[in-house]
Amino acid sequence: MSLEYTSSEMMSVTAARALENGTTCFVGIGLPSEAANLARLTHAPDVVLIYESGTLQTKPDILPLSIGDGELCESALTTVAVPEMFRYWLQGGKVNVGFLGTAQIDRFANLNTTLIGDYKAPKVRLPGGGGAPEIATNAGEVFITLKHSKRAFVKDVDFVTTLGFGRDGKGRDNVPNIGKGPTRVITDLCVMKPDPDTKELVVVSLHPGVSREDVMEATGWEVRFAAQLESTPEPSEKELEILRELKARTERAHAGE
Amino acid sequence: MSLEYTSSEMMSVTAARALENGTTCFVGIGLPSEAANLARLTHAPDVVLIYESGTLQTKPDILPLSIGDGELCESALTTVAVPEMFRYWLQGGKVNVGFLGTAQIDRFANLNTTLIGDYKAPKVRLPGGGGAPEIATNAGEVFITLKHSKRAFVKDVDFVTTLGFGRDGKGRDNVPNIGKGPTRVITDLCVMKPDPDTKELVVVSLHPGVSREDVMEATGWEVRFAAQLESTPEPSEKELEILRELKARTERAHAGE
Amino acid sequence: MAEFLSLHDAVARYVQDGATVAMEGFTHLIPFAAGHEVIRQKKRDLTLIRMTPDIIYDQLIGAGCAKKVIFSWGGNPGVGSLHRLRDAVEKGWPHKIEILEHSHAAMACAFEAGAAGLPLAVLRGYVGSELPSVNDQIKFIECPFTGERLAAVPSVRPDVSIVHAQRADRQGNVLVEGIVGVQKEAVLAAKHSIVTVEEIVDDLKAHPNACVIPSWAISAVAVAEKGALPSYTHGYYGRSNRFYKEWDAIARDRDTFTKWLDDNVYRAEENA
Amino acid sequence: MAEFLSLHDAVARYVQDGATVAMEGFTHLIPFAAGHEVIRQKKRDLTLIRMTPDIIYDQLIGAGCAKKVIFSWGGNPGVGSLHRLRDAVEKGWPHKIEILEHSHAAMACAFEAGAAGLPLAVLRGYVGSELPSVNDQIKFIECPFTGERLAAVPSVRPDVSIVHAQRADRQGNVLVEGIVGVQKEAVLAAKHSIVTVEEIVDDLKAHPNACVIPSWAISAVAVAEKGALPSYTHGYYGRSNRFYKEWDAIARDRDTFTKWLDDNVYRAEENA
User: Which sequence ranges are marked TM in the entry (chains C, D) (predicted)?
Assistant: First the structure.
């Protein structure tokens, strides 16, 4: 096989494959939403997608631009109020996987979507926590997907908006009623997983054509690689076709009023 | 005028008249429900009736036997879940008047619907508190209606299920975010109101044909009478007609499956 | 995903002796068929939770299924006492039962908190009531922002909740409509749940904000036609107020009750 | 009972300088027409509360209406930053604003608690997050039953809440449908409330458990046709994703923003 695909497509397909059929997934907007819907349209037709806008078990035909596009409600099993969404469905323990993006992530998978710089005098003010702080702690486990870059993958985040494993890797130890936390990070270069002991993110799989040096150059700490480093399977023709159709449908829809 | 009417009818009509048009009323089942619906069908067409089953602004054509008859839902503006009813609508401060019945009431208008005798070995086990404890404290004020008897009107209730003014009359003093409590008690003999200072229930109005002695004999404490004791106005022909039609409709409906 | 089971199998699998069971339905949609199945299967030592234990709990208590009842209003609505509940509490027949009583507001909040995965519910409740003196599960906390004293009760988290609903679709998603009570909360708060429905349909025909419980939040769905009678199912059949009134005489006496139970529950077919 | 007012009169009466104002709508039903009226009337020193301050709050902040913003996610959904919010926070234009930030879960619970008349909301939240270090309104309490440490935040209780909805009937009862967000909670939690609607109808045609806000829980109802654009109204018109994308360029620059505001808000007629 020698399919043509971009590194973004590789990332989306790999992220999609992480979601098992039948999983209940609380979906963040953007890359997670693209991956989750690709999963639903390929190997996981019974994946249950939940968006924080209150839409339960939704099956959008196009990707929503916002977390509360009409498409999400129209294709949902039902739509509940936002307090109910966070109380009954997320905090109530009904979510297997929280699927998140982020602006910054550190070696212990802590996420920063609050700001770059100092809180009182920020260099860049980011949108803020949104649903992430409680998705990351109340979901059974967390998948994270984002593009790999030194700006994004930093040794220590400027601000822990959302708990990965804390600044020392022990942030979930002895905390009752908390999920497993981040179990994998999917980027356009590789897949990372937390070391079982230290919780530091370790590269477990390189995407085809990506070298260790590529990852090291795009990571802001001395990144470690698993002893048994794997090669991420390539996207299939069908996955690429479905992803491209989804993105084309989405673009057409968002171009109109 | 010399209309024929029963003391029960006198009680219902007097209780109904207590409800002003436009009032939002959280209605207990039984006598309060009869009075509240009579009010709605006579002088108070815009009274808003709320039942704890979640039915908001309901307009039943017949009196419900239970607090959750289908009639209540079908004629309601909308029906909400029971937690929402108690949280948003009652505790949230949207109710002007709570309209309650009771098994026992004492001189400080405390209500007992829990049991007669000792809690560990009750002589008579009553149904329990239901909505009353929080209706009585979270509604703006409380109206109480029940038949007058020495068994019901006792000096001290066996158990304070629901606060009137406490065992010493001071139970609401300095309590933040609490309603005014019972402002009138309507019986088949008279109307009672709490003394502004001591909060002891005082007879303010006798129903036509009822003597002070009648009330004293039916009351389990040395009941006081207001200096300006009034005579309760008689029911009008129209009120009686509407009340009787309502009860006849109700009886016909409840006799069927 | 909910499994479609017969009512017999659902009760046999999920209602264990000694379990904490919430059968909910606020006057409407009371799961009578399921309750009768619990009686038929002679489940014992149950802790029965219900805001308004009406005649279904009277029957369960009289049949000897209950060890403890947690409730906020135990009566025959609009009729009077629950004579089997009273006989158990006052005279210990068929055996002594424990009771733990709350107010409606507290229990409704406790179901809400259970669904929300919290250990406690906070409410402005029980002010001046003597219920806290007989229920050690009622505590008070101080608001860290205002200093106000507020009531706290443990959330309700049953081993199994049983509710009745209008209909399920073929995936096991359930529509509840009309007076919805605390049924959704009961299902979400419980470890396991059984939902009986009037029928299975291809399409729930639910409006966008309907009370729909997804299949993946339910353990078992069982068809029980007329499963709420003598209570009612909005859109299907009305409440038998007549039976509620007749129950008073049946339940008043141990013998008439026992005979009624024999004729109408033990000898009845499932769902009959 | 809600009073039917023009949008101008409703805003003039209920939105005072210095007030705490919640304009809600979770992506859907955002009250843009009302927000523009607030800008036109040059309201100042507002504390603006909103879970997802999107471009309507960007406009209010850029127009100089805001003293403080309380929020949990401030971005242009799917597009990027709110440049007017960032310019105010990072560079103090048109003046410095305070911010107080929460997570969505905490704000949703705080609206719920406000509607429920409570001073606080309790949630399993902020575990391991550094938000409590920059928001002194986040505290922790201990569950008196389990000892678990839980987050507590003050309830949201605005001076005035403004929401948009599909329609009102002639009594002023309002139907909200689709993604209902925290709008009902916002209205119930507030001292005063303004609801703008697409139309007034004889009959709401609501199903039994619809999200209906009764007239007696609302201060004023004002008709604002297309009042949510460029956001959308389920059943009436779709979201202008194109405008959301165009906003990025408009808002990036102070001059283009100011011109846009002049052309599209100050010089526009109410409801135009």
Answer: none
